[in-house]
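To close the section, here is one more complete example, presented without commentary so you can practise reading it yourself. The ligand is alpha-D-mannopyranose.
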Amino acid sequence: MSDLARRFPENPLLRPSDIRPSAPGMQVQCLLNPGVFRFQKRIWLLLRVAERPEQKPGKTSFPVLAENGTVRVLEFDNSDPKLDLSDPRVLRYDGVDYLTTLSHLRLVESEDGLRFRDHSRPPLFGQGELETYGIEDCRVTQIGPVYYLTFTAVSGNGVGVGLRSTSDWQRMERHGMILPPHNKDCALFDAPIGGLYYALHRPSSPSLGGNYIWLAESPDLVHWGNHRCVAHSRPGWWDHARVGAGAAPIRTPEGWLEIYHGATDAPRYCLGALLLDLEQPWKLLARSREPIMEPLAPYEQTGFFGNVVFANGHLVDGDTITLYYGASDSLVCGARLSLAAIFNTLH
Ligand code: MAN
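Output:
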C-alpha cells in the first residue's frame, strides 16, 4: 500500500526526548501537530508539547493551569470506580472531563528543514480561564508583516479557538477566544477576498449535525460572522466521522486548495484535499475521493494514540508541499507531496 506522501527518510524529525520539559518534575509525553512558517530566512515549527508528571504505579496524575498561571497537579487512584481511563487523551472523573496531558507551544528553528534547534524564545502557555487545560495545534498564517496564531484553547468551559498575533516572535498580542466551544481546527486565509478576511473552522454539533468544516468572514480577524458549512463528513468513507481544516488554504489558479484531516470512528486519521472557489470560497468545487496520506509507516500506526497522521502546517515551493505533521499524536515528522498529484485526486 502507498499514498502520495514522500516521507522524509530522517523521520521522526523530533521526538519528546528532544525537548526540555517546561518545569522540573514534568515529562514531555507527546510532541505533535506543529504550525509552520518562514521567518528571518529560516524554517520554524511551533510545536505542541504535551506534558504530564512522571506517573506513579497505580495512580494517574495530570497538570492543569490555574488562572494565575501556576500549575496544579491532580492525582487519582486507578482503582477508583469514578475514574474513566478508556481514552489515553481524555479522562473523566466523577462526570467531569479533563485532559491527560497539558499542552503548550514551543518554537524550534532550522536552516535545512530537517534538523531543528530548541529555541531560546519563550514558550507560549495557556493564560486565563479559557486555557486552563492548555493550548494546542496552532495554525500560523502570515498576512502582510503579521503572523496570526489560531489554536485550540481548552478548559473546563470547553474547547474553542484562540487568537494571538506577532510581528517579531518576541512580543505577542492576545485577542481572546474568537470562536466559542465547541470549535477547533481554525485556519485563516492568508489574504482578504473582496475586502473581508476568511477562516475555515470546525464546530461540533453533538445531537443533530456532526463535525463539519465551516467558513466564516470577518472585517478585522477578531469578529466572525456569516458562517457557512462547506464540507460534511461522508458516510461510508475514510472521513465519515469527522473532518477539520489543516493550515492556511493554498491559493492556486484553480481555487483555494485545503489539506484537511478526516477520521473514521475507529478512529483512523488520514489527510485529504478540497478545493474552494477563489472569489466565493464558500463554494466547494472538488474533494479527494481517496486520502492523499494515510497512517502507513510504523511510527504513524503505533504511539500514544496510533493510526494518526495530522497536519496543521506546511510550506509551499512551486509544485512541492512540505508537510510537517504529527504521527500517532507522539512525534513530529516530515513529508513532501506534489500539488499536481493532489489535483489528480480531486473529483
Ligand atoms: C481530542 C484530542 C486531544 C485534545 C482534545 C482537546 O480529545 O484531539 O488530543 O487534547 O481533543 O482539544
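Once you have examined the C-alpha cells, check your reading against these statements. The CA atoms of residues 148 and 165 lie 4 Å apart. Residues 89-90, 99, 136, 152, 154, 159, 184 surround alpha-D-mannopyranose (CB under 6 Å).
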